Amino acid sequence: MSASPPIPGLESIFEYLALLVAEQPPDEPFLLRQLQPAVQLKFPTFSFAAYGLANLRDFLSVGEQAGYFRLVNTGDAKTVHLLPGERARKPPAEPMPVPTGQTDPRRIQWMTQVMEDMLSAERADQIMEAARGSDALSIAFSEFLAGQERSNLLYPVRGKLRRVREFLAMWRTNGETPAMMAWQPSRALLKMPPVPPQGDAPRAGAYIQALLQGRARLADLPIEHLDNTFFGVLRYYQQQFRRERAFDYVAGLEILEAEARAVPRPAPPPVKRGLFGGGKPSGPVVEPLDGEQIEAITRQLLNLAGVRSTQDLTAPWRAYMAAQGPEALYSTLASNPRLLQDDAFLNWMDAQIGEAVERDNWNEVSGVANKAALVIAARQVGLDQLRANTAEIKGVYDSILAGARQLGQVVAYLKPDVEPVKYLHGHPELIEDENIGLVLDDQLIKAAERGDVARYRTVSARVSLWRGVSELGMENGVKQYQRAQAAPREDRQVLAEMGFLLLQGATDTETRRDILERFPAVVSNDGLALANNTLEMLSFQGVDQVEYARHFEIKRLIERCLELGINRALAELK
Question: 3-state DSSP call for residue 511?
Fold first, then answer.
């Protein structure tokens, strides 16, 4: 196979451009002047002549006629923009029959077609659709992808190929659902993040951009330029791409870093001594690589770019938790008053308590609860007044501990090896306490957020049993539970339910996008049925119009995703 990157089909370019146009908010449309840089960033080999087009006008005319987008001519070259077209989604094409003979020349054609379909896929379900009816899970196909990964000139494409190979390997080894939950859709990257003007960093950034886009080869780069600054900028790009969720680029940079580190580096010249020592070294000076210096350069560039790390955020929280004794705790809060205003800090401590309860470590629960009580009481009455009002701390502490004990009961009830009906018989206080329902719901949401299908199945079954017993009594509630258990759900139905549950708590477009990408099963008849059933239940319960409208919006979103696709449907919400 040739090492030159294949020329993408014009339809693939239009599809990509249509997604970019659809993702733009109404008040920030996709400007015409963004078109060519965006296309060439994704398809560096793109040119109008390659497709028999004379210029941009011909390109736009073909795209408009095909319904991918429409041009809005404002009369000002700076504001001319594109809007989504009316093109309907294509039904999936029938898979190409798999040639059985290993020496059949059509087999290479088949594998190339499947590979291109997977490269154009974004979500896990789309990759699986591309593999439908084929032997894409075979070792032979994995080796074919590995060969394509080595020969391709474009590092983002190589990164996508590696991620697809890892996805197929997980699918082959662990099954469809774990592979789907592990896949991270990669976002489109419209432009490279700027490199702060620090030392030689911009020069290294220009080299890395040229390597990523196939305009330069690693072998052509002088060895003295593969220095600590080069690797620091490379790590800087990795962090920026990860923040942008451009995971194909992250994987591509990991490949580039491994190959750059493998380039032979000449040993430093020996120190000359004696009468003729001290002369200038011959040849270029090659800087030895220093891991600490590379990390320092990366951190400096991220700081200059205004990027804060998670460690910087949690450092004062951990410092407070490490303080020992009342005076040390008071002193820490007094020197860092922002801790008394940070809701994220309280949520973090609550999570620490929850993890300690799950580990059944009640000494740790008591210690964290005591420190959390001090923070909550200080927020309520003020730090200065708290010293003379320790009863306030004791009251908050008792409340936190009571909640932890309640969580402990729920954790015990949710253990997979516990017989749930027998447990409820032995703990009637769980049935009588309405707050248990809130704790169970929280555990259900956590299982969905983790993408843990097995855990979600267990928790949802126990929630169903608890609600049935609470509302119908022990006998009827258990019968209802047993009927439900006798009709097991397929994984796709569970995934749709998990996605639908998380959509109910989503408040912005980006969160909805993340959920729909992770749980594409919700964009299905199963997801639509969940939405309709929920609306019927809410109508029967007579909930207020605001709550009903919120769930109706979820139903409408699923409908539009089925009609237009996820990206265009979400663009309507902006």
Answer: helix
